[in-house]
Amino acid sequence: MVPAAMTDERENGDDVTTPLLELRGLSVSYRTRGGTIPAVRGVDLDVWPGQVTAVVGESGSGKSTTAHAITRLLPTNGRIDAGTVRFGRHDLVALSEAELRTVRGARIGLVPQDPTVSLNPVKRIGDQVAEVLRIHGLATRRSAPAKAVAVLDRAGLPDAALRARQYPHELSGGMRQRALIAIAIAAQPELIIADEPTSALDVTVQRVILDHLQRLTEESGTAVLLVTHDLGVAADRAQRLVVMSQGKVVEAGPTRDILADPQDDYTRHLLASAPSLTTTRPRTPVSIPEAQTAPLVEVRNLVKEFRLPRTEDGPRTLRAVDDVSLTLHRGQTLALVGESGSGKSTTARLVLRLADATAGQILFDGTDVTTARGAQTRQLRRRAQLVYQNPYASLDPRYSIGEVITEPLRAFKVGDRASRLARARELLDRVALPSATLERRPAELSGGQRQRVAIARALALSPDLVVCDEPVSALDVSVQAQVLDLLAELQADTGVTYLFISHDLAVVRQIAHQVAVMRTGRVVETGPPEELFTRPRHEYTRELLAAIPGGRVPSPAPETTTSRGAAS
Amino acid sequence: MRRYVIKRLAQAVGVLWAAYTVSFLVLNWLPGDPVTAMASAGMDSGDVDPARLAALRHEYGFDKPVLVQYADYLGQAVLGDFGGSVATGRPVTSTLADALPQTLQLTGAAILLAVLLGGGLAVLATYTARRWLRQLLLSLPPLGVSVPTFWVGLLLVEMFSFRLHWFPAFGNDGLKGLVLPALTLAVPTGAQIAQVLAKSLLTALDQAYVETARAKGAGRWRVHLRHALRNASLPALTVVGLLVGQLIAGSVVVETVFSRDGLGRVTAAAVTAQDIPVVQGVVAFGALIFVTTNLVIDLIYPLLDPRIVVASDRRAALA
What are the residues whose beta carbons fall under 8 Å from the beta carbon of A41, sequence distance 6 or more? Predict the structure, then answer.
């Protein structure tokens, strides 16, 4: 079904033998101070009417640039050097800016990457949806608000009329993404470009949103170009896959075929490192039997309350951590799993004494540290370190890597200059970075390298406990795998204990000895990963497991030799 | 919202009190004595009748201990009475009230011009796709900030009064007389607004929501004015609030250069004559204007950015 208003624009209305969108030899480069950097190099790509085509690749593969180049929504330093983008009758590369504006929003909708920053913070949701309709003359000033509410409702936003009057910050990430989907579908476009539409959202929200997007586009026959780094998401949703690496398409064809029988080395590599697609790959090193040693950390009935702004009903509090008890055994990994707001990060902050517990008890190596102050917390800092989620933000850009790694040593006045430097060199070696890295700055390193540096820094004081707060979620899948391997290896060598926080069950499965599933501040289920994953007892655990993308992938199918679409 | 307003009002009162107290202490510690200066006016030598000096000092309360003086003055100031001028004998309040309309006209016109010129410059510079034009426009604000006000004033007078005879060079007559002084005062102010606004416009244009707007099919003008400008206006607004203080200070120079009556000249005269009550009045009054403007601006923030009141609540939540 084609939206009525568009039929005259599309001479090939129902002809599914012609692609809706045809990229040929598309090349895009970015101009930087260091010269011109090619980002997309001669990409061919087809999107068929009514189908979902997924572009998969790691960061820097040019997948996002390709998607943005279609409607020429590139950053100011980006330029299309060559190629054509045929959409319907037009070559979008050749259109004037004014002509292109009649395509953007009206015939091609965009669902952007991060819903938390993609809505104008100072405008009401309803107005932002209505704007598309107003720009393309699809509603009058009077009819626009009501129509916007209708579109929001169609995008699956509950209480659409109320939400339309609210501002973005009053909505959750999932609700904001629905508002952005509403903006994309408002004008009933023929194509929706979804650029990592759910990677900033929790898995369960991710699934609901993708389900809804799928249903909407199926109903209206809208084609979707889905850009994603998550092979699992692509496998679940797309009829066709396009695998990109270093600005080029390395493989393209029906999803089923590519997953069952990848032709390209890179695709195989990507498939192998995707955690959600591998059933199990235990890295679990030999663990010290629990009974032999006393636990390193014991958390008993921990509670943390935050005060909320008072209302008419008097003061309110939010119980972020609610009666949590955990045991961390030496040399093992305890994973805290849960969605945003589940209290997992707060729990870790309490254990590290970065926040004060409202009630409960924390024992570190047998000592009660619940209310530790001054010198005692400082001793604790020496024995418990932290690796943050975002390696791009957690390293001081002005420090050299050597300074970053030796900072904990300097803070605790360990050794002299020479011995600290030697230690840094040794640590770099441990995390598999060349010692020449010492002189470099964080900006010169890739995300994976930076996270290795952060790990080296955490290990500098030979701590007993390292808290890893989503240590790999900002990294590409293949880099994720390497960093997880490294963490497991370091644990086997040094006997360090990890408190591993993650929203990603697939990652947790690979590294944890014990898993605690958290929801709204409570631990709903604990157990070794194998047991938890195969026989989940709590309903919420089952829900989380079901939400892992890639679950619907057909296992290597017998019909491997179906026709393969024209790749690059 | 009510708590926000109450908190801001309490802060405003605090600032006023601090400004009054600091200026009182500074003026008291300064060497020199307004009574001596006044009594010696018109006489050749410094020989003044000590008895007369003592009487004068007693009349103005200068013979009391500093703390008592402070309490007296503060108590009266709260009631709006700043005493009488040592130099002229007129009540400070009426001296200020006479000068005020002129200065309000001047600073009001200047701030209007500054916002229009500075804002316009920033919008234009960030909108234009021509690199050279952008560079040219963006190089103007630093120039405007760095040239001294009196020099700009003299230049404008030379150009528009003496050569072109368009506007009068001095005096208080009507709208025509207002143009050059207001423009002089607006140049550094507008330049600073332009600098801040251009910077935050460029930042805003880099945000993801701008891409969303472009993906909707919005034209550049629409993206610029409806999406980026409102988000970018907050830092510029903050600067406007701070610049009001600078404008009052600037009026001293400009009113002197253009021989205009007003608060600036009253200040200049009072400082020369060490007329402590008047200077105190000016300081308190300047602080009042400054505090009021910033209070108004604080109250405008939530209207421009719906997140602001919530943010102050959220801080309470995390505390």
Answer: A27, A62, A246, A247, A248
Please give the average per-residue pLDDT across B151-162, as a whole number.
Answer: 84
Residue from the list B216, B307, B313 with its beta carbon closest to the beta carbon of A121: B307
Sign of CA dihedral A537, A541, A543, A547: negative
Q: Which tokens hold the place of A26? A: 């598309």
- Which B-chain residues 180-239 have CB contacts (< 8 A) with chain A? 207-209, 211-219, 222, 227, 230-231
Query: Quick one: tokens of A566?
Result: 């024209």
Report d(CA A121, CA B222) in Å as an integer.
Answer: 16
User: What gap in Å lies between CA B234 and CA B280, rounded to an integer?
Assistant: 33
Q: Which class for B51: exposed (0-12), middle (13-18), buried (19 or more C-beta within 10 A)? A: exposed
Band of pLDDT at residue A12, cut at 50, 70 and 90: very low
Domains of chain B by start residue, with CATH: 92-272 (1.10.3720.10)
pLDDT digits (tens, 9 = 90+) for B28-62: 777 666 666 666 554 444 566 777 777 777 777 77
pLDDT confidence bin for A185, thresholds 50/70/90? very high
Closest CB from B230, B306, B319 relative to A307: B319
- Quick check: A169 and B316 CB within 8 A? no
pLDDT digits 0-9 by tens, A314-361: 677 888 899 999 999 999 999 999 887 788 888 998 999 888 899 999
Distance from the B147 Cα atom to the nearest Cα atom in chain A, whole angstroms: 33
Cβ of residue B176 closer than 8 Å to a chain A Cβ: no
Determine contact: A106 vs chain B, CB below 8 A: yes
Tell me if B307 and A169 make a contact (CB, 8 A cut-off). Answer: yes
Q: So what's the pLDDT on residue A375?
A: 86
For A29, A301, B255, the CA distances from B103, given in Å and listed in that order, are 56, 67, 9
Nearest CA among A111, A202, A203 for reference residue A155: A111
Q: What does the pLDDT average to over A215-232?
A: 89
Q: What is the pLDDT of residue B35?
A: 67
Residue-averaged pLDDT of chain B: 83
- Residues A26-47: what's their mean pLDDT? 89
Element at A46 (helix H, strand E): strand A35-47
Judge whether A231 and A205 are in contact, CB under 8 Å: no
Which residues in chain B have their CB less than 8 angstroms from residue A131's CB? 213, 216, 218
As given in the structure block, the two tokens for residue A461 are 């004081």
Contact yes or no for A135 and B222 at CB 8 A: yes
Cα A405 to chain centroid, rounded = 27
Name the minimum distance, in Å, from the CA of A235 to any CA of chain B: 27
Residues of A in contact with B219 (CB under 8 A): 98, 101
3-state secondary structure of A158: coil
- Find out whether B116 and B193 touch, Cβ atoms under 8 Å: no
> pTM score, two decimals?
0.77
CB atoms within 10 A of CB B316: 12
Cβ-based contacts of B231 with chain A (< 8 Å): 120-122
Q: How many CB pairs under 8 A join A and B?
A: 86
Distance from the Cα of B181 to chain A's closest Cα (Å) equals 37
ipTM, two decimals: 0.77
Q: Residue B34: what pLDDT?
A: 63
A132 touches chain B (CB under 8 A): yes
Tokens of B10: 């309490």
Contact B227, B126 (CB under 8 A): no
